[in-house]
Amino acid sequence: MYHVEFCGKGGIADLLLVAPTTANTIGKMAVGIDDTPVTTFATTAIGSGKAVMVVPAMHEAMYRHPGVLTNLETLKSMGIAVVDPRIEEGKAKIADNQRIVLEVERALGPKDLASKRILITSGSNAERIDPIRILTNRASGRTGVEIGLEAYRRGGEVTIVHRYRMGLPFREVYAESAQEMLNAVLSELENGYNALISAAAVADYTLDPKEEKIRSGQDLVLRLKPTKKMIKEVRSTCPDLKIVGFKAETNVSDDELVKRATESMKSSDLDLVVANDVGSGGIGCEDNRVHIINKHCGSTLVQGKKGLIARKIIDCLAEVL
């Protein structure tokens, strides 16, 4: 009777995770067949209104079978969460452990961003010099990705704009240059978002690229021109949007850093600013030390892994949404 103890009405389980889930089990769950220990737990959980999550794994040809796909849609219509497989080497491989854990956290964790649409910019830009060379910076994009994962974990509908293709569990929009990123952000905002988290280290300068490779071995002078300020452009078109900005300085005191970030928050009409001294680390590292400044209630110092910092940023954002 363990299936009742765990997954029955009033059972102690919060969620039934079936991982991996074969094509056979998917079909049985979809039509209520109960003839194995796994399907007994599944039938009981579904009938009791428990949260259920399946993680398909099988050969790709089996996964593409119309009947299997129909059964998966049936499970989704019952409110069952499906964690998509990784399609590799002709197989629909089970999602990696981190992805499965993330989906469980999203299912069971706090829902303070449920129904909220969050747009994030992340990482560096690449401004073309010629077909081979680029101007860029050292920003890794790790903070932006961690923020996206935390927002997703807490129920948000997340889109990230960056120049990477990472296979994240939420929507990714590719943008290489500062202008491409600005265009992508403005285009996305036409679809309606609750907040923009501007975590990207957007290029401050660009140039007119050469169509052919510049020959090496001699002095080179590049004529740089400033790029448009993304937050200014966004604020002019979306006056009511909640915006989180980032402020990087080098070799300043905490008081001076907070002062400059506060000035930036006021001049750009931001709701939150995340400020850090990149002269003492942060870029390309797993750890950082930041001040999160709220225009209504002062600043908070956060130090630690970027996942922790992302959690604190989302905590602060949730309070103003």
Our count of domains comes out at: 2
Query: What's the CATH H-level homologous superfamily of the largest domain?
Result: CoaB-like
Radius of gyration: 24 Å
Percent of sequence in beta strands: 15-25%
What is the number of helical segments per DSSP (H or I, 4+ residues)? 11
- What general form does the structure show? globular
Largest sheet: 8 strands, mixed
CATH architecture of the largest domain: 3-Layer(aba) Sandwich
**What's the total count of β strands?**
18
In the CATH hierarchy, the third-tier topology of the largest domain is known as: Rossmann fold
- Estimate the helix proportion, in percent: 25-40%
Mean pLDDT, to the nearest integer, reads 95
The CATH C-level class name of the largest domain: Alpha Beta
* End-to-end Cα distance: 45 Å
Low-confidence stretches: none
Structural class: alpha/beta
Condensed summary:
This protein is an alpha/beta fold and 321 residues long. The chain has helices at 2-7, 23-31, 37-47, 60-63, 66-77, 97-108, 142-153, 178-189, 230-237, 254-268, 306-320, and strands spanning 15-21, 51-56, 58-59, 81-82, 86-88, 91-93, 117-121, 127-128, 134-135, 157-162, 171-174, 195-198, 205-206, 225-226, 242-249, 272-277, 287-294, 298-305.
